Every structure is written in C-alpha cells, then in structure tokens.
Input
Amino acid sequence: MWAIARAQMQKAQAKQQQSANLYCRDIDFRVSDYVYVLTKDWSTGRPSQKLTSQIEGPFLVLAKEGNSYKVQLPQTIKIYDVFLLD
Output
C-alpha cells in the first residue's frame, strides 16, 4: 500500500517538475551584452516611486564578477554599478 502511494507521489512530482521547468532557463549574460536594470532601489527625487520607470536601460555589461555583473551606467546615475540577477 505504502509502496504504491510512494510510487504515485514520485510520478506526480516528476510530472510537476517537468511542466514547471518547461519554460525556465539559466540567465547568463556575456560581456558586451546589453541589459535592463530594475530601478526599485534608486532615489529619483520624484514624490512617488510609482511615477518613475520600473526599468532603465539598455546598459552595456562590462564584466562578470562572481554571480554579479558590472554595468556601464551614465555619469548622471550615482549608484554602485554592480548588480545581482533578480
């Protein structure tokens, strides 16, 4: 009885994993690719965060540093230029 239940559970988990991973892919950028950056932690001086753009870009990837990427930002943007993938 338990063996049948365990086998059915493993079969259902395998099917769920296959359907969940169907459209997933590893995100990997190369140097000289262009990327968009989320602006959720930027201070823009606007009265409400809802009024600003949610993403900015495209920006050039300069280097990969561990799991992060160094991005070439304009001189007007005064934030750290290394970003993690979200």
Q: What stands out?
A: The first strand starts at residue 34 and ends at 38.
